Amino acid sequence: MPDNEAPRLDTGAALESPAPTATSEAVPATAPEGGRRRSNRPWPIIGAIAAIFLLLIGYVVGGAAAAGGEVGRADSALKTAVSHNNTMAELSGKDPFKDVNFTDVGAAKSAVAQFKQQVSAWQADVSSDRKSLVRVRADLGGSFLTLPEQSTIENRRYRVDAALSALNTAQKAFDLSRKQMAFLEPFLDSIAGFEAVAKAGQANDLNAMASQLTATAASLQKAADLAQPPAMPSEFTPTLKALQQLVKDMQALVSAAKAHDLTAVQKYSAAVQADGKALETIDQSALDKAEKALFQPLSDAYDRDMKIAAGG
Q: Considering the entire predicted model, what is its pTM?
């Protein structure tokens, strides 16, 4: 290059930035002036946590309130049902074939009528209690809101189910008792008929005896038609058949006496005596055992479920 020539500027090389070396450090870019920096303050996070905390508190409190309403209604229904327990327990202790005095027909009929009234009153309590318990049972299904109180709700549901089971058992006892009372009414009429036959016999009134025997036979037949298991144990069947046979032979005896048929009178007199002895040999304890076997399981089941319902 000539000495008098000025050096030229290589503009391409001047504009290029030098390539970074492996050891060079990157310079962080700075935000333009006036731009917003990201905050590292904890207040927004704490505020969010507080909001969640308040939601949880509201959930717990609201759930407790909702559960409290359900549990309160269940407790009220249970308390009412349990309060009827003492009167219900009387039914399981009743045995009309032992408690009713069959030697005094008037007193026996009064006892049966009183027992029927008691059953009707107890039936009203059972029906009312069942409706209340079924209503609160539907409320004890639980929900997301009541999850914090789920154990309490499950406890009340368990007790309500036990109370409903006890009431179902009581209903079975009521149904059996009603059928026994229905049987006892014509049966007591037949006993009253035998007493009337005896009075007519003492008065030597054959026509009155015949009339009373016809009415007695009808009462016994009605009682026999109602003596259906399981309400009436089969152990009572021999007694009914023996009484019906007695009436039949007594009718034949009266007819023979009215006809002045001495041979027939002797025949049917012996038959009536045999019928009386047959009645004396009937094992009445078998009937008592059958009655206990019928009602004792119901009584035990009722007591067991009602103890659970009471919280025991």
A: 0.71
Query: Can you tell me the distance from the alpha carbon of 89 to that of 93, in angstroms, rounded to the nearest whole number?
Result: 7
How far apart are the C-alpha atoms of 93 and 73, rounded to whole Å? Answer: 32
Sign of the alpha-carbon torsion through 219, 225, 230, 235? positive
- For the chain, helix (H) and strand (E) counts, in that order, are 10, 0
DSSP 272: H
8 Å CB contact between 186 and 222:
yes
Alpha carbons 84 and 128: distance in angstroms, whole number? 11
Q: Which residues neighbour 138 within 8 Å (Cβ) at sequence distance 6 or greater?
A: none
Whose structure tokens read 């009682």?
A: 223
**Residue 279 neighbours by CB under 8 Å, 6+ apart:** 239, 242, 243, 246
Question: Of 65, 72, 63, nearest to 132 (Cα)?
Answer: 72
CB burial of residue 90 (10 Å; 0-12, 13-18, 19+) = exposed
**pLDDT tens for each residue of 44-94:** 544 444 444 334 433 344 433 344 456 777 778 888 888 877 666 665 556
How far CA 227 is from CA of 132, 143, 216, 240, 258, in Å, comes to: 35, 51, 16, 9, 34
What phi and psi, each to the nearest 5 degrees, are found at residue 22? -65, -25
Over residues 291-305, the pLDDT tens digits come to: 889 988 998 999 899
Contact 91, 120 (CB under 8 A): no
- Buried/exposed 196-214: b ≥16 CB within 10 Å, e otherwise: bbeebbeeeeeebbbbbbe
List, in order, residues 6 or more apart from 105 with CB less than 8 Å away.
188, 191, 192, 195
Which pair of tokens denotes residue 179?
Answer: 């059928």
Furthest C-alpha separation in the chain: 187
Residue 258, number of CB atoms within 10 A of its CB: 12
